[in-house]
Amino acid sequence: MKKTLLSLSLTAAAAVATLPSMALAMGAQDALNVITQNHHVATHGLQKQHGYWTAEAIANDGQRATVLVKDADASFTAVRKSDIGTTLPGVAQVTQALRAAGWAHVHDLELDDGFWQAEARQSLVHGEKNELVLHPQTLEVLSQVGRSGGFANQQAVLGAEQIRLALQQAGYTRVHDLDYDDGHWEAEATNLAGQSVELRLDPHTAQVLSERLDD
């Protein structure tokens, strides 16, 4: 029996129920206040991702840092380049922690926007590639997404085949090159007008966020 988009949404909702709850209580000004209270100024680029308010700021000693304020409890973390491998885990420590957690193959590990990001597989032969995002200090996995789906921003993420089905139900054909990148699903397809297009979709709902002609 074919799955409908409604059944996919119900499946995603059930998956969300298994994730840790988070009280999204802080506003932007609240986050700025926490950053100031922790002796950082000249804050810019404030945004919310992975359950944290993040920004660039300058500490009282003049060093630049990426700062994180947890939306659920206002806990504060400052990430400075000089801290990596000293007061904060370095590449070797993060790799070791991921392997200890069952990720046998870890690559493309980097610190980006204050979070550790990596691609990992549990098995090189049969393991599905997963995009991981980890907290820079605790190494808590904040996002884990593979072709079969996963979770990000405390919400379930649809898998590639679910995205394909949703696009087909919306009238797109020849759906191919599905890829999860930078927090969104991307795909190429043919639209109702017969045009080849590149699509960007909400990973939680499969809503098409943008459509542009394929060059």
Can you tag this structure with a few keywords?
215 residues, alpha+beta, Nuclear Transport Factor 2, Chain: A, six-stranded antiparallel β-sheet, four-stranded antiparallel β-sheet, 4 helices, 14 strands, 42% strand
Structure in words:
The structure is a single chain. The protein has 215 residues and is an alpha+beta fold. It folds into three domains: 28-83; 85-138; 156-213, Roll (Nuclear Transport Factor 2, Chain: A). 20% of the residues lie in helices and 42% in strands. The protein has helices spanning 5-17, 28-37, 91-100, 160-169, and strands at 40-49, 52-59, 64-70, 76-79, 105-112, 115-121, 130-134, 141-146, 149-152, 155-157, 173-181, 184-190, 196-201, 208-213. The strands form three sheets. Strands 5-6-7-8-9-10 form a six-stranded antiparallel β-sheet. The longest helix has 13 residues, at 5-17. It is globular, with a radius of gyration of 19 Å.
Overall CATH architecture of the largest domain: Roll
Q: Give me the strand/helix succession.
A: HHEEEEHEEEEEEHEEEE
How many distinct domains?
Answer: 3
Q: Helical segment tally?
A: 4
Strand order of the largest sheet: 5-6-7-8-9-10
CATH topology of the largest domain: Nuclear Transport Factor 2, Chain: A
Strand content: 35-45%
Structural class: alpha+beta
Calculate the terminal CA-CA distance, rounded to whole Å: 37 Å
Helix content: 10-25%
Main CATH class of the largest domain: Alpha Beta
Number of strand segments? 14
**Overall residue-averaged pLDDT value:** 89
The major β-sheet equals: 6 strands, antiparallel
- Rounded to an integer, what's the Rg over CA atoms? 19 Å
Overall geometry comes to globular
Model regions low in confidence, pLDDT < 50 over at least 5 residues: 1-23
